[in-house]
Amino acid sequence: MDKTGLKQLLTKVKNGNIAIDKAIDYFKGMPFDNINFAKIDNHRHIRCGIPEAIFCQGKTIDQIVDIIDKVIENGIDLLATRANDEVYAAVSKKHPKVKYNKLGRTITQKNNRQRKKNGLILIVAAGTSDIPVAEEDRETAVIMGNNVEVLYDVGVAGIHRLLYSRDLLAKARVIIVVAGMEGALASVVGGLVD
Q1: CA distance to 122, 135, 188, per residue, from 157 (Å)
Q2: Least packed by Cβ within 10 Å: which of 1, 34, 151, 186?
Q3: 3-class SS letters over 55-112
Q4: Average pLDDT, whole number, for the chain?
Q5: How many CB atoms sit inside 10 A of residue 151's CB?
Q6: pLDDT digit string (tens) for 49-77?
Q7: Counting Cβ atoms within 10 Å, is residue 50 exposed (0-12), middle (13-18) or buried (19+)?
Q8: What pLDDT, in 10s, does the model give residues 71-127?
């Protein structure tokens, strides 16, 4: 549940449209669900404005599926990172609405229907080998309700490709630069924008 959902629930209680006991059911998992090996933070979206991310690397498939079961059961936006094909296959069997970004190795499911945030996050990747990290960044920003665009393969070795998109660079409120080799792209982008 996010802040908007919480306000709607409390308004229904106030107006007599939902019984207090029924409303209490929504809070049973607050602030977290304890499933022995993990404590799922059902409250984070209310506290921080963003859902908890599930870092899949190092967890068993069963652990990941159990965590995702609770996240989806509680209506929280799902963001699982560093997920592989095997993890996705197990998760999608139980939750066919999840989306998998193979390049970014993310599994997502939007459960809260919040309004898109103002502004634009632009993700800029130097080379093709930087795309997996950029895609993980993109999925993370999107699940958090942001407007996101990407520029791929615009590294300093072909600076004209970056300069071609100066209008988009100027329009962005936030720019995330992914440059794995020498990292020069971040300095160049920083010199082009305020």
Answers
A1: 20, 22, 11
A2: 34
A3: ECCCCCHHHHHHHHHHHHHCCCCEEEECCCHHHHHHHHHHCCCCEEECCCCEEEECCC
A4: 89
A5: 21
A6: 778 899 999 999 999 999 999 989 888 88
A7: middle
A8: 898 888 899 999 999 999 999 999 999 999 999 999 999 987 676 788 999 999 999
Higher pLDDT, 7 or 14: 14
Residue showing tokens 């809070």: 27
65 DSSP β-pair partners: none
Q: Which amino acid is at 12?
A: K
Nearest to 140 by CA among 96, 91, 105, 95: 105
- Beta 148-152 vs 121-125: how paired, if at all? parallel
* CA torsion, ordered 66, 71, 75, 80, to nearest 10 deg: -120
**What residues contact 105, with CB distance under 8 A and at least 6 apart?**
81, 82, 83, 84, 132, 136
Using an 8 Å Cβ cutoff, are 94 and 61 in contact? no
The span from the CA of 168 to the CA of 157, in Å, is 20
Closest Cα to residue 88, out of 54, 135, 48, 52? 54
Read off the pTM.
Answer: 0.81
